Amino acid sequence: MRTIIRKSVAAAVAASTALGIGGISAISAGASGSDGVTNNQITIGATVPLSGIASAGYSDVAKAANAVFKYVNAKGGVNGRKINFIIKDDCYGFPGAGCTGTPNTTTQTQALLNTPGGLFATVGSLGTDTQKSVRNLLKSSGVPQLFVNSGSNDWNNPGTYPSLFGWQTDYVAEGKIFANYIKTNYKGKKVGFIGQDDDFGQNGLVGLQRGGLPLSNIGSGDSFGYSALAAVLSDPFLTQLTKLKNDGVQVVVLDTIAQATKKILTDAANLKYKPVFIISGVGSDPQTVNNKNEIGALTMTFFPATGDTKNSWNKWITKVLAADKADFPKFKSSTILTGNMQYGAGWAVTFLQLVKAMGSNVTQTNVVNTLENSGSTFATPAITQLAYSASNHQGLMGGIMVTVKSVTATTPVKNAKVYATTDADGSPLVVKNPVNAAVPAWLS
What is the mean pLDDT of the chain? Predict the structure, then answer.
C-alpha cells in the first residue's frame, strides 16, 4: 500500500468520526447513551490494518463499509439513527513493516470501548489471531463482536461467545469446495499446499482433507506453513516452491494473504514452475495481488463477478463509492470494483439491515436474537444466503469457483455451480441457485 493511500485512509477515518449528526426527539429503547446508542446515533468501531503488512487492499474493506455508512447517513440513517463508525489501525497486530498505527489489537479495542457514550458493537474488525485476542475482553464488556473479517470457524461458537458472529464463508468450507474442484478436474494430480501458519492455513488444510483430499494426497513433505510477518520482511517461498517443483506437484493450493500470494507467483515464474494455483479468496483479489502471473489461477468467491456492471448490487456499490471522495478520491463510475470493496459493502449492509430489523429495540441484547431469528433473510451483495441461526453464527456457508482472467477481474469457471456446505467432516456440498437479491428500496 502506497503511503499516499494510507494518508487518505487516515483522513477518511478522521472525517468519519466527525460526522455531523442530526437528531430526532423520540425516546426509544436502547437510547441510554452508555451503550453507544442515543436517539439519533449508533456508535460502532473496528480495528483493521490501515498500515503495515496487511494494509494493501484490505484497508479498502473498511473504507467501503465507511462509504456505505456515510451514504446512508446522508439519506437520514436507519430508523432516524445515523452510524458513527470509528476505525482504529492495529497494523494486523505486527509492529514494523510500514506500520504507522498501534500494533496492538487489545490496546486499540480498549480505546474503542473507552469511547465517550459507549460502543454498541465492534463491526467488521479484521484478522484471525487479532480478533481471537479480544474475544474475552469484548464478551466481558457486553459488547457484541460482529462480522469479523476472517474465515476462521472460531467465530461460530454461540455457546461460549453468544455475541460473536462471523460473516464470510469460512476456510474449512472453502477448502472443501477446493477439494471437490480438484477431485473433479485434476483427478490423479499431485497436490501441494502453502498456508499461513494460523487458523487461516490450518483451517484451509482441514477443509481440503474433509473435502476428500486426505494427507495421502497432500504429502507432509508437500505441505508448508509460513509466518505472515516473515512473508513480508523476507521471502520464505523459494525453498518451498523448489521442493514442490522437484516433487512433481501439479496443483498448489494457497491459503495466503495478498502480499504472500504475489511473492509466490513471482517466485514460481522465476523458477519456471507452472502448476495450477488455487488461491483462497482472502488473498486472490486480482487488483490487490496485481501480478500478471495470477492470470489463469483459480479461486473462490461468494460475490458476483466484480466486472458484472449489470448486477444491481455492483451498480449500487459503485454509486456509493463514487460518491465518497474522501475514502475513494479516484473512484469513478467506470472503475471496476475489487472483491475487498464488495466485502466491506457486504457486511456494512448486513449491519444496516440488523439495525432496521431491530426497529425501536436497538439494544446489545437484541442483536443476538435478531441475527439468529432474522439474519438469514437479510439481502446482501453475496450470491449465497447468510445462514445465521441459534446454532450457526458463521454467516455465509458457500461460494463459486472462478478464474482470474486479468489483473482486474475474474470470471466463473466453465459449468460453475454455487455450493453450500457445513464444516462437518463428510457433510456434502449442496448445489444452490445463486442469490441475486434486490437492493432494498430504503438503501437505494
Answer: 90
The boundaries of the domain holding residue 94 are 3-169+307-397
* Interatomic CA distance for residues 370 and 355, integer angstroms: 9
- Residue 40's CB: how many other CB atoms inside 10 A? 17
Three cell numbers written together for 93: 497486530
Are residue 196 and residue 157 in the same domain, yes or no? no
Pairwise CA distance, residues 227 & 233, whole Å: 10
Helix (H, G, I), strand (E, B) or coil at 60: helix
What is the rounded CA–CA span in Å between residue 190 and residue 171? Answer: 21
* DSSP-derived secondary structure letter, 14: H
Domain co-membership, 243 together with 287: yes
Cα(204)–Cα(224) distance, integer angstroms: 12
pTM: 0.89
- The number of folded domains in the chain is 2
Neighbour count for residue 270 (Cβ, 10 Å)? 11
CA atoms within 13 A on the CB side of 107: 10
Q: Containing H/E element for 367?
A: helix 364-374
pLDDT digits (tens, 9 = 90+) for 330-344: 999 999 999 999 999
Are the C-beta atoms of 277 and 295 separated by less than 8 Å?
no
How many residues does this entry show for the chain? 444
